[in-house]
Amino acid sequence: VDAQRIVILGGGFAGAYCARELARHLRGTTRPVLLIDRNNYFVFHPLLVEAGTGHLEPRHTVVGLRAMIRPATFRMAEVVTFDPAAREVLIRIPELGRDERVAYDHLVVALGSVTRLPDVPGLREYAMEMKSLADAIALRDRMVRMLELADACMDQAARRSLLHLVVVGGNFTGAEVAGEFDAFIRSSRRHYRGIGPEDPRVTLVEHADRILPALGPDLGDYAADHMRRRGIDVITGDAAVAIEPGRIRLRSGRTLDARTVIWCAGIAPSPALAAMPLPRDDRGYILCERDLRVRGLTNVWGIGDAAVNPGPDGQAYPATAQHAVRQGIHCARNIACALSGRPTTPCDIVNQGSLAALGCRTGVARVFGVRLSGFWAWWLWRTVYLLKMPGLGRKLRVAMDWTLDLFAAPDPVGLGIHRPPRNDAVDYGSRRSTP
Ligand SMILES: Cc1cc2nc3c(=O)[nH]c(=O)nc-3n(C[C@H](O)[C@H](O)[C@H](O)COP(=O)(O)OP(=O)(O)OC[C@H]3O[C@@H](n4cnc5c(N)ncnc54)[C@H](O)[C@@H]3O)c2cc1C
Fold first, then answer.
1. Strands (E), 188-246
2. In the chain, N or C terminus with fewer CB closer than 10 Å?
């Protein structure tokens, strides 16, 4: 068992940036920094939807963790729990069928979040998510498959149902999925003679009165109007109450005939936290002090989506990449202070703003209080995320993809990740015969 270690659980925005900063602070010392994650790559979530629509090569939205955090070290394993008395983390390597213990001096818990799946009947069986690279590719493959099936389908109602994508949740992820996938499906239509302009449909369902509430009413209204003008049905003040094979039922009594439902309505803390001896709030998030230490534990720190980190006003910071990165860097600095006997400092973060891409080279943005919409907001969205992408190599690949994308529209080709939801058993209607 190794001793004198700083161990970081989770290599997302919070954990990976914490490891990078710690490695920088502790360079020249003998204190090792180890990051543990179930995947050996960091996912740049803001670009996932573009990986799905093909504007970006999917592999270019992830970065290898070993290179990203060097000279900190990496271990690929499933985190099970930790023992604060023994100062050990329990990890599992499923392929080897065994558990191992890793010792720590300081432990950083940065295990992030998962999609919140409330008890809506049929949700777990029939809806898809947008949280991982595999989710993005699976949604792309699903829509390509629906285009192929619809092209050969004679029955108009069945064809429309095949090409109807319902997105539940009108915050950043939901709005981007609806806007970008609507553009993808419509631009792909030119390859299919059997699909008419009125066949593809995207519906966005949001339970609040407006979409994109974090951007304020004017930008939320702009985004909804823009989407409606493009033919997207934006339904506000309503909620999904049941998902059935080929159909989704809303609280208002409305029924939408749709073969694909994607659930983007909220997040929940990583399920791994439930087995850990951590103070948690009623939703399961880790309770932390203002310097990011977990309440009541001097050498355990909680950052990113998994933690409730209060700001100066006592309110928790929102679960965004922007906050996770800055918490990761601040946590590293506070650990360096704790190791050298200096006082730690509270993590104060000023929100720099938010951006969303809506497809068709249109976006909405509020940056340092300045509001932008339309083409320039979309341009800013791409520029900001290109600059934030870690590593020069990845930045160049993303820039190259986007440059090519200006001249060549994405192809409707799948990547072979087809996860058939059970509702695929439904009759597709009468088939066009192949000549
Ligand atoms: C589609 C999408 C778009 C987004 N767009 C934006 C945006 O434009 N701007 C913005 O600011 N935010 C955006 N976000 C939110 C942002 O991605 C999150 O706030 C951010 O990822 C949180 O970072 P984190 O490090 O806390 O968690 P994560 O990035 O989720 O990282 C957690 C890590 O822990 C690992 N892990 C979890 N459990 C275990 C376990 N038991 N064992 C081993 N490893 C484990 C995971 O593999 C993962 O690598 C978006 C999110 C999504 C899903």
1. 201-206, 233-236, 240-244
2. C
pLDDT tier at 324 (50, 70, 90 boundaries)? Answer: very high
- Encode pLDDT of 95-141 as tens digits: 888 899 999 999 999 999 999 999 999 999 999 999 999 999 999 99
For residue 151 and ligand 1, the question of a CB distance below 6 A is answered with no
Helix (H) / strand (E) element for 368: namely: none
Q: Which atom of ligand 1 is nearest to the CA of 328?
A: 25
Q: How far apart are CA 376 and CA 372, in angstroms?
A: 7
User: Looking at residue 3, what is its pLDDT?
Assistant: 44
91 Cβ below 6 A of ligand 1: no
- Is-above-0.85 flag for pTM? yes
Q: From residue 34, how far is each of 105, 139, 307, 434 by CA, in Å?
A: 11, 34, 20, 58
Site to probe by mutation for ligand 1, drawn from 13, 140, 181 as the one with most ligand atoms within 8 Å of Cβ, is 13
Alpha-carbon span 12 to 111, nearest angstrom: 8
Q: Calculate how far, in angstroms, residue 317's C-alpha sits from the geometric centre of ligand 1.
A: 15
- The terminus-to-terminus CA distance of the chain in angstroms comes to 68
